[in-house]
Amino acid sequence: MTIAGSDSGGAAGLEADLRTFITCGVHGLVAVTAVTVQNTLGVHDRTDIPAHIVAGQIEAVVDDMGVDAVKTGMLASGEIIETVADTCERVGIGGDTGVPFVVDPVAASMHGHPLFDDTGLTALRDRLLPMATIVTPNLDEVRLLTGLEVTRREQMRDAAVALRELGPRFVLVKGGHLTDDPECVDLLFDGTTFTELPAPRVDTPHTHGAGDAMASALTSGLARGMSIPEATRFGKWYVSNAVRHSYPMGAKVGPVSAFWRVAEEDRE
Ligand SMILES: Nc1ncnc2c1ncn2[C@@H]1O[C@H](COP(=O)(O)OP(=O)(O)OP(=O)(O)O)[C@@H](O)[C@H]1O
Ligand SMILES: Cc1ncc(COP(=O)(O)O)c(N)n1
């Protein structure tokens, strides 16, 4: 299940999550948190879904269909984050014994437009991170959550340690924004061991939805029974290919691709 906002441009948000789920062989369930008016230029408008409807969506699908892994994306407001935390706690998602819970702490779109309100950061840090099986911040989100500025690969370790102190069981610091690094290295930390996940940096401006693809492939891996380290490696493999096959669309930043997992003859 993804608990996320909709992107009318179909590059990020729940559209990216569902596309990733399908191409990873899992059935996607959705709790919509917000509808954004979005294209390759940015987020132009949005409306948030009432918190009780977000809670209702989670409860309805969990009660009837069950979930094997859950991820969050855009959560829109402190109120929605508090409600998601309460509801997930009640239905057994996250924490030490619940269904694996991947918290992608989405704070802004890649164009810099905020995706939660002023109360969102505190709610994310105090309520959601302690419940997370794994948190998957980019470097802007690392700075917001910990105050640490990461500009070099070596600094990712201190950031991972600081993030783990906020309560998640695993931390994945994503290095996509270290644009001077010829490799794109993500760092996994379990509280004891650091594991670097390197991949060649693809020379493309079209990376819209990369973070969503990474987190939802990871979530798909968990739903299919992989361990956290296995699912993280699977997510990294998936997103590296998705970025390699990204394509231009609209006036600015195009989407990463899921088509690389679709049979060649069906892509024409
Ligand atoms: N140019 C690139 N080539 C290869 N992998 C990349 C590239 N850019 C990002 N990635 C990978 O994509 C994933 C998302 O990384 P990033 O740090 O950009 O997060 P994000 O800001 O949440 O993503 P986005 O805003 O693009 O959706 C990471 O696994 C990262 O290593
Ligand atoms: C609805 C929604 N959810 C998430 C993102 C983040 O994705 P990105 O960092 O690629 O802009 C987004 N732009 N829109």
Number of strands: 9
Dominant shape: globular
CATH fold call: UDP-N-acetylmuramoyl-L-alanine:D-glutamate ligase
Name of the CATH homologous superfamily: Ribokinase
The total domain count is 1
Strand content: 15-25%
Spatial strand sequence of the major β-sheet: 3-2-1-4-5-6-7-8-9
Instruction: Compute the CA-based radius of gyration.
Output: 17 Å
Percent helix range: 25-40%
* Global mean pLDDT: 96
User: Low-confidence runs (pLDDT<50, min 5 residues)?
Assistant: none
Distance between the ends: 30 Å
The structural class is alpha/beta
Ligands, deduplicated: adenosine-5'-triphosphate, (4-amino-2-methylpyrimidin-5-yl)methyl dihydrogen phosphate
CATH architecture descriptor name? 3-Layer(aba) Sandwich
In short:
The chain is an alpha/beta fold. It has a single domain, classed as Ribokinase (UDP-N-acetylmuramoyl-L-alanine:D-glutamate ligase, 3-Layer(aba) Sandwich), CATH 3.40.1190.20. It has helices at 13-23, 51-64, 78-91, 120-128, 139-146, 156-164, 210-223, 228-244; strands spanning 2-7, 30-39, 42-48, 70-72, 101-103, 134-135, 170-173, 186-189, 194-197.
